[in-house]
Amino acid sequence: MNTLNYSFKKIPLSMQVFLGLTFGLFNLFVNSIAVEIIKIPFYMDTIFTVAAGFLSLPCGLICAVTYHMAEVIIKYGSLVPSWFGLCSVMVAVISWLFARKEKEFSLLRLLLLAVLLIIIISAEGGIIYDAFYATRDDFVEDQANNLFTFSLIMNKIPLLWSSIISRIPVSIVDKTVAVFGGFFIARFFNRLPR
């Protein structure tokens, strides 16, 4: 069923590090275009993290850390950690585990990975928001997410659940694009001659 026969080959550690750093900066670029220029309500910050995770765990982790460090330094002029970086780390780990397990990718299996990431990252993001950011006056999430969260709270749904549920609509698009885009990006870079 639409099988994409493809096994990711091992790449040298130096290439894993280089791609991890590069992909992290690509994530920042794509996120900046999506959020600040086009102003769509999707983060688009894990496409290259999924790609890096498919290639290797070190590549995925380097990508996740690079993106969030660059984001706080460039966008916010600070060295304060972004706890949402833990979501990117989780994306890298899950993508890597999935790539290790799968020898034949299909559209259905990639969709299964997207659904898994939608659920896990929405839950993790909601927990992080509730634990670290909900009571801070200096932190503002995007307007669409805020509106959805507050409308759920107004309907007597606790903050934690509101924070988790409000992330699901954004994650449906965001993580589906990340999984499918990340797979084809990883496949392209994995085929390059060394």
Explain this structure to me?
There is one protein chain. This protein has 194 residues and is mainly alpha-helical. Helices cover 73% and strands 3% of the residues. The chain has seven helices and two strands, in the order βααααβααα. A two-stranded antiparallel sheet has the order 1-2. The protein starts with a strand and ends with a helix.
Strand order of the largest sheet: 1-2
In the predicted model, the low-confidence regions spanning at least 5 consecutive residues are none
Q: What's the count of strands? A: 2
Q: Main β-sheet: number of strands, strand sense, barrel status?
A: 2 strands, antiparallel
Helix content: over 70%
Mean pLDDT across all amino acids: 89
Task: Count helical runs.
Answer: 7
Structural class, by secondary structure, is: mainly alpha
Distance from first to last alpha carbon: 32 Å
Radius of gyration: 17 Å
Which overall shape is indicated by the principal axes computed on the Cα atoms? globular
Q: What is the percentage of strand-forming residues?
A: under 5%
What is the ordering of alpha helices and beta strands?
EHHHHEHHH
